[in-house]
Amino acid sequence: MDFTTPNIKTFQVFPEVPAALQPLLEMANNLWWVWHPEAWELFRRLDRDLWVEVYHNPVKLLGIIDQKKLAHAAANDGYLAQLSRVYEAFKSHLKEAGWFAKTHADLAGQKNPFKVAYFSAEFGLHESLPIYSGGLGVLAGDHLKSASEIGLPLVAVGLLYRNGYFQQYLSADGWQQEAYPELDFYNLPIEPMKYADGSPVQIRVDLPENAVFCKVWRTNVGRVPLYLLDTNLAENSPSDRDITSRLYGGGPEMRIKQEIVLGIGGVRALEALNIQPTVFHMNEGHSAFLALERIRVLLENSSLSFDQARQFVMATNVFTTHTPVPAGIDTFAPDMMVKHFKNYFPKLKLDEEGFLALGREDVTSKKQGFSMAVLAIRLADSVNGVSALHGDVSRKMWHNLWPQVPPDEVPIQHITNGIHVRSWLAPEISYVLDRYLSSRWETDPTDQSVWEGVTQIPDEELWRCHERCREKLVAWTRVLLKEQLARRGASFDDVATADEVLDPEALTIGFARRFASYKRGALLLREPARLQRLLEDVKRPVQFVFAGKAHPADHEGKELIKALVNFAHNPAVRRRIVFFENYDINIARALVQGVDVWLNTPRRGMEASGTSGMKAAANGVLNCSILDGWWVEGYAPDLGWAIGRGESYTDNNVQDQIESQALYDILEKHIIPLFYKRNVDNVPREWIGRMKTSMRKLGPVFNTNRMVREYADKFYVPSDARGRTLAANNLERSVALAKAKEVLRSRWGGVKIVGVHVAGNGHYRVGEDMQVEALIDLPDIDPREVAVELYAGPISATGQIGSAKVLRMDHSKQIGGPRHVFSGKIECRVSGRQGFAVRVVPGNPDLATPFEPGLIAWN
Question: Which of 289, 541, 716, 844 would disulfide-bridge 263, Cβ 3.0–4.6 Å?
Fold first, then answer.
């Protein structure tokens, strides 16, 4: 029988930190220290062994450290001098204006200040706060760090999972197991939010059975606050307390509850805190319900219709999709949506079918599931993918939402992901950059001219620095592997061999990512004998380090891990291949800093962006990857290697065979020979040349400072301005736009392109203009309410217009009744077979895109 201690009284114990060390407490509770090596070195200096034991958590370290060690540090002049320097840098960061204030000074002084609310289901800020699973969360964490650095007014909203994402460990035969240890919130850099009277900030979200209460916590990321919702409260039922237990845990019922709490609860939390964002950013579809809640708030006690409120909310919503395949999108059954939202329908002034249509790709199909991505797309004027290729994939993937719009014009843009460079840079590399680059590499890593200084770093110095990083990785690997083997119950002899794994001077290749089947983590195992020959070569040794988790329900991914681990058990190669358990930010940081080559082998088109290769490149590590995601934009022959040339395949097995052979060839003929091509000083100068080129060309582009600036300039600031325009005079323009769209829809059936007349005989010389006139019927529609366009370009082999240009036609005259004449011209700039079509689209200047109403007429 389980025993429950009765009448527990809780209290909290705080660390006793000497007055001279008080700044440590302040910095420990702000994750600014994460990307400043001189800051975390302050904590590590207090007790190096304890720093490892608490998994680099300064709050916990200060809470359990021996008071004598604190007293010793408080009396150490050298330590206090370093503390003073770091604390001054910290305070300076919190006060400095930053790029945003300088670039967008015109936004200062507005009645309702510009502010972005960034919602994400996970945030990967540091290994000591494990509320992330992988790339999506790490990207979100880096987004916040860069927002702090550039001074972007931004708040973030997420969930505080008490069990986080699962901890991975392997059985003796290499099969992945999962554990869910509980987080100690009171030893993390988070604090519960309180009202002025000291009572906790809690909000309420209604679910079908009952209300759920959520406590609001805050963690600071530099000057960006991150608010996290927690349902583990005594007021909630046991099942509702579990809503914020596990990241991506449970089935559809748990997932929909989590997303209701994140989206609807997140909006209510900001309201409870009296925070009034002017722009909302949904990082993936998990938070899309926030758009519904924003509309509900506008409709409450107002005479607005759903479409009128929706118009304003759309204008101020940004949606970023990270998923290149429909199967990766959260989709809920219609009956589940009705169950959770039937009491919500009237608050939105919608009936059941009107509500469900918001999430259906095909609004006429009542059996179709409710897609969170479709909901987000339909309720955001700004939508983007996360790389150029992913933008193209997304436009094709969601083309059905705009069926008459050419795929290239589907209103989904792209902003290529980046990394927060200083979070991932090895301290050794950082110190070298400090010596040879302008200090702007830290304050403005987007400045290409700054990174040109990499060419000034002596080859020998950069190489010795990189070798130290590899040596650190090898030493750390041996310690970690011994711990892993001991946990698995390995024999004494097997554990002892961990002291001999990896060679600190050998070519080291890293592969670490989620073990989903499309990432092909075991592509190298298609020819085990060929791989074994590479690993057994004593003259030009090669070694591999692997890491990654498979989703608990992904048995195929678990089989891939098992195959790798069992291959590594072969006595002939066991010193040359290692698999790390429990892949997280700490392991990722060690790998991207210490390997020589970063390997990436996804099926092309299925990696939306990928950022691990960017982290490696910042450290001078060379990439070898399929031309997918970011590598399509980053690759050049002088800075890395491409597996294939971007081909498409219909047979996965054929693709795996061809691309595995290509990978082996690159390793055997290019990578290994280049790495071991040494002069008498044993320095691989051509390899180092590629390292410098990689750092110099990729560093200023693939970073989140550039990325967040791009979000600000392309989406946030325009959305803020558009929202203010539509909100003025009690949403007068929003109401007018909704009514104008309604009128257009009711009359659009009569829009018809009656005829098109072209001057000339169909043959033109380069440099001539082709004049075009179109006769168009616009019954009861003012010609100023539409845009008539020429869609022109070269004709492809399939008879379609490729690389089209859109040219606006002018209204010439009305020739009786609803018939109007529009005229335009096409400049004949190149020879060859050309073509054009005429189309009519809505022309209201308040529309974010003419395709948003779904109205278009072609000749």
Answer: 289
pLDDT computed for residue 742 by the predictor: 93
**Under 8 Å CB-to-CB from 118, ≥6 apart: which residues?**
140, 143, 144, 147, 154, 155, 156, 157, 281, 283
- The CA-CA-CA angle for residues 489, 495, 496, to 5°, reads 155
Q: In sequence order, what are the residues at sequence separation of 6 or more whose Cβ sits closer than 8 angstroms to the Cβ of residue 184?
A: 60
Q: What is the pLDDT of residues 29-88, one digit of tens each?
A: 999 999 999 999 999 999 999 999 999 999 999 999 999 999 999 999 999 999 999 999
Strand duo 279-283 + 116-119: pairing: parallel
Phi and psi of 163, rounded to 5°? -110, 0
Q: What contacts 413, CB < 8 A, 6 or more positions away?
A: 382, 383, 384, 385, 391, 714
Neighbours of 41 (CB within 10 A): 14
The neighbouring-strand residues paired with 159 are: 229
Cβ atoms of residues 39 and 110 within 8 Å: no
Residue ranges of E strands in 167-255: 167-170, 176-179, 191-192, 202-206, 211-221, 224-230
Residue 442 neighbours by CB under 8 Å, 6+ apart: 422
Give the DSSP letter of residue 164.
B
To which H or E segment does residue 159 belong? strand 154-159
User: CA 40, CA 572: separation in Å to the nearest integer?
Assistant: 40
- SS (HEC) of 748-785: HHHCEEEEEEECCCCCCCCCCEEEEEEEEECCCCCHHH
User: Which residue bears the tokens 């490696």?
Assistant: 616
Per-residue pLDDT tens for 487-501? 888 888 888 888 889
User: For domain 423-702, which architecture applies?
Assistant: 3-Layer(aba) Sandwich (3.40)
82: Cα separation from own chain's centroid = 35
The rounded distance, in Å, linking the Cα atoms of 83 and 434 is 20
Alpha-helical regions (H) of 17-128? 22-28, 37-46, 48-53, 58-64, 67-74, 77-95, 98-103
CATH class of 98-414: alpha beta
**423-702 matches 98-414 in CATH topology:** yes
| Amino acid letter for position 759 | A
The answer regarding whether domain 751-858 maps to CATH 2.60.40 reads: yes
Structure token pair of residue 121: 């289901």
359-382 pLDDT, tens digit each: 999 998 888 999 999 999 999 999
Give me the residue spans of the domains in the chain: 19-95, 98-414, 423-702, 751-858
